[in-house]
Amino acid sequence: MRSVSVLGATGSIGESAFDLLMRAGGPEAYRTVALTGAANVGRLAEMARALRAEIAVTALPEKLGALREALAGSGIETAAGPEAVAEAAARPADWTLSAIIGAAGLPPGLEVLRRGGTLALANKESLVAAGRLVMGESQRNGAVILPVDSEHSAIFQSLHGENLDSVEHVTITASGGAFRDWPLERLARATVAEASSHPNWAMGQRITIDSASMFNKALEVIEAHEFFGLSCDQIKVLVHPQSIVHAMVSHRDGGSIAHLGAPDMRHAIGYALHWPQRAALPVPALDLAALGSLTFTAPDEARWPALRLARQVIRAGGAAGAVLNAAKEQALDDFIAGRIGFMDMAPAVERALDACAREPGFASSPGDLATVLEWDAQARRLAACTSGAA
Ligand code: NDP
Ligand code: MG
């Protein structure tokens, strides 16, 4: 029986993975080693019981009592704290999904790679913050990384059987998020509630706001650079409001291979779960006649400065990815808390990038986790709003 672990089980991606595992037969089909979560220990305990997990871990030490209580009598081990999440990730499992949100996903993801495991990677932040380190650990230990971000899964699938040298460029699509059609002058007053609703995808709140600001696409451009080794100029973005074409690979011979599908993350998660096979998945079939038309436009960088910052980060290399990722997380925290406006996020990130670029060592890619975390902490300090309410 295959063994699996899900890091970030209680989130949006984690719930989709849980759905797939349960539909496939749950504990009769898979041996679940570890499930991890953070605040939502009630749901974590339900999932752990349903899958008969060996261990359930919350990242929050203050939640350990509640988790223990919820799992009393189940025989399921419990633990708490970031180190316990990393230790759970280090336990052997045939397939581990990294679906933690933010840079917190990096240390446990590295543990999976160090044990030579198969890492289904939704946590794009680890590649953005530490691409060189993550890919290096993977190669050194014979680990396998399977992209779960829908665009990167789409590229991965489109590249199957192809030679990367023949690729002219790839295109990833963006829905344009909540504010695609808003007049520019209205964006500065956009509220957290308005930014938290996505036209096509049901996702966690943070990535939904990142979709509205296009920081999600900025992270994905960097993710494509780190994972596939493509140059900045080889990664193009198109706004595609229907979210049906997820990515397209264009070859030097003039042919392009696109990946299409309904906007449902269970496709990309399920593809990674069953790879290298394909299995039937509970994903709506594509009905192009019902859709009628698919449209594409070039993104407007005045509306979405995040895309310009992504290219700046790829060209700078070194610690720029770690700085952009952390500064973005800080700016997002500040926006959600009402300390800054929607259009203040990109300038906060740019401020941190500019200041860090003057620091010694910025041009070198961080070679270990401690160095990534130092840049991360510095970037958060520099990006943080210090002037009270917006
Ligand atoms: P959610 O916010 O819905 O879930 C995040 C998960 O991480 C939850 O299980 C949460 O626990 C846990 N968590 C939160 N903080 C910490 C922490 N400090 N340490 C350990 N665990 C923590 O996020 P999503 O599911 O939307 O996204 C997860 C990842 O997948 C992100 O990297 C995102 O970019 C990526 N992704 C998401 C897509 C989507 O459709 N949602 C699409 C493509 C990529 P709890 O809820 O119990 O507090
Ligand atoms: Mg994506």
UniProtKB/TrEMBL annotation:
1-deoxy-D-xylulose 5-phosphate binds at K124, S150, E151, S175, H198, S211, N216, K217, E220. Mn(2+) binds at D149, E151, E220. Its EC number is 1.1.1.267. Keywords: Isoprene biosynthesis, Magnesium, Manganese, Metal-binding, NADP, Oxidoreductase. One of its GO terms (biological process) is isopentenyl diphosphate biosynthetic process, methylerythritol 4-phosphate pathway involved in terpenoid biosynthetic process. The keyword Cytoplasm does not apply. InterPro entries: DXP_reductoisomerase, DXP_reductoisomerase_C, DXP_reductoisomerase_N, DXPR_C, DXPR_C_sf, NAD(P)-bd_dom_sf. NADPH binds at T10, G11, S12, I13, A38, N40, N123, E125, G204. PANTHER family: 1-DEOXY-D-XYLULOSE 5-PHOSPHATE REDUCTOISOMERASE (PTHR30525), 1-DEOXY-D-XYLULOSE 5-PHOSPHATE REDUCTOISOMERASE, CHLOROPLASTIC (PTHR30525:SF0). Catalyzes the NADPH-dependent rearrangement and reduction of 1-deoxy-D-xylulose-5-phosphate (DXP) to 2-C-methyl-D-erythritol 4-phosphate (MEP). This is 1-deoxy-D-xylulose 5-phosphate reductoisomerase. It comes from Paracoccus yeei.
